[in-house]
Amino acid sequence: MTNIFATVAVLAATEGEEMPSVLAVPIDELIIGLIAFFVVFGVLAKLALPAIKKMLDERTDTIEGGILRAEEAQSQAQSVLEEYREQLSSAREEASAIRTQAQADRTAIIEEARNEARTAAAAVTANAEAQIAAERAQATASLTRQVGELAVGLAGKVVGTSLSEDARVRQTVEDFIADLEQQAAR
Amino acid sequence: MSAEVVIASGGLDCHLMSGCGFPAPGAEIFQFDSVLTFSIGSLDVHISKVTIVIAIMAIVVMGFFTYAFRKPKLVPRGSQNVGELGYVFIRDGIARETMGKDGDKFVPFLFTLFFFIWMLNFAGIVPFLQIPATSTFAIPVAFAIIVYLTWVPLGIYRQGFIGFFKAMMFPPGVPKAMYVLLAPLEFLSNILVRPATHAIRLFANMFAGHLLIATFSIAAFYLISASVVGILGSAASFVVAIALTAFEALIQGLQAYIFTLLTAVYISGALRAEH
To answer: Which of A4, A29, A59 is the closest to B19 by Cβ?
Structure first.
């Protein structure tokens, strides 16, 4: 029973005492709150955060710089590869052109040599034929003259007079020899 | 004799079956005696438990981050890792999310708001402190005033006096006749209601959470008695008080985040007119 009375007394006391509203804003608490915020803000903004901001920026730089460098190296490698390929293809073209040229040259050289040989052979043949013909003509002429002189001499001895000066006799001998030649040719 | 002391002594004697009613905690658990009172001019300054909690948490926040970021390394380790996580969370998760690259300038401001408020909330479940400093209305009001005095002048500076209020009161894409209704409402909602709700949301959440934990803690104590109902009820209350403490840990971070995110949204709106 005493307890109940005590509680009632407590409640009465609580009711009786002026209880400030929970929504009251005492000016000293407000000022303490403001000061506390600005102290914390000042310390963090001036002392703690600039260092970490700078470091994070540096890290971003490092990473992005690394990526940039890698990209640069890649593009460089790409251009070198391109150049190399170009060189390779031009070298191939050159080689093929040289090969074609060599083929053509070989054909031309062979043709030329063949022609030269043919010409030379023909010349040699012609020369020989001409010589032979000349020699034959010479031989024939000298033989004709000697046979004629021989026959005239012989006939003169047979007839007893010299016939060598007579044009009619020379005609007769020539006709005779021509006749002989015709017989030989037959 | 203050109400607090009476209730506390009454609470100690008071158990189920001992003929006394449940001493439900009320607003008085948020009232603390002044341990030191001094005057600056005409202003009486009362130093109470809440003031001490604020001082301790301010030192914790400043101390931790000054220590963590004292010599930052490119490859972070230890406390720098934790601090960096917080910094990047504020920068990317709040500032850049709402303002883009413009947000980088406001990172220290938002960073301070978030971590200071979080720690002041967190004091509610730190043994011996056991009072969220933000459940004292003056503290959220102080922060809301700082935020208000940041975004309003910033908006006027950036958009011009007329441009700022025009963008606020005459949102585009609304039928002309609606402005008769909309303009005064928008003005009220942005200029008067916004700072009030900003402060009250944080205060009321922390106040209610602390009251809940206190109620179940006192219930666990009150129900101890020589009866089955009393023992079971006491045990259940104790378990609920523990669960509520874990839940509060979540709410403390969440409310700090909401307060900071709203701040970022207000600043973002001041930087450029919303479309």
So the answer is: A4
Residue pLDDT, tens place only, A124-173 = 999 999 999 999 999 888 888 888 888 777 877 777 666 666 777 778 77
Looking at residue A45, what DSSP letter applies?
I
The angle at the Cα of B52, spanning B47 to B210, to the nearest 5 degrees, equals: 105
Domain residues for the domain of B77 are 3-271
CA distance B271 to chain A (A): 21
- Separation CA B57–CA B146 (nearest Å): 19
| Burial bucket for residue B128 (CB in 10 Å: 0-12, 13-18, 19+) | exposed
CA angle centred on B169, ends B164 and B170, rounded to 5°: 100
Interface test with A, best of B139, B211, B222 (most A CBs within 10 A): B139
Number of domains in chain A: 1
Residue A116, domain member (yes or no): yes
Residue matched to tokens 């903004």: A45
Could you list the residue range(s) of the whole structural domain that residue A68 is in?
32-185
In this structure, is residue A133 part of a structural domain? yes
Question: Which residue type occupies A162?
Answer: S
Chain A residues within 8 A of B119 when measuring between CB atoms: none
Specify the number of domains making up chain B.
Answer: 1
Where b means 16+ CB within 10 Å and e means fewer, B129-160 reads bebbbbbbbbbbbbbbbbbbebbbebbeeebe
pTM of the complete model? 0.71
CA–centroid distance for B86 within its chain: 18
- Give B48-106 pLDDT, tens digit per residue: 999 999 999 999 999 999 999 998 888 888 899 999 999 999 999 999 999 998 899 99
Please count the helices (runs of H) and the strands (runs of E) in chain A.
4, 0
| Closest by CA position to B55, among listed A23, A37, A24, A42 | A37
Distance, CA of B237 to CA of B222 (rounded, Å): 10
- Asked if the structure places residue A3 within a domain, the reply is no
Q: Is residue A4 part of a domain?
A: no
Could you tell me if A16 lies within 8 Å of chain B, comparing CB atoms? no
**3 state SS for A79-112:** HHHHHHHHHHHHHHHHHHHHHHHHHHHHHHHHHH
Q: How does DSSP assign B236-254, residue by residue? A: HHHHHHHHHHHHHHHHHHH
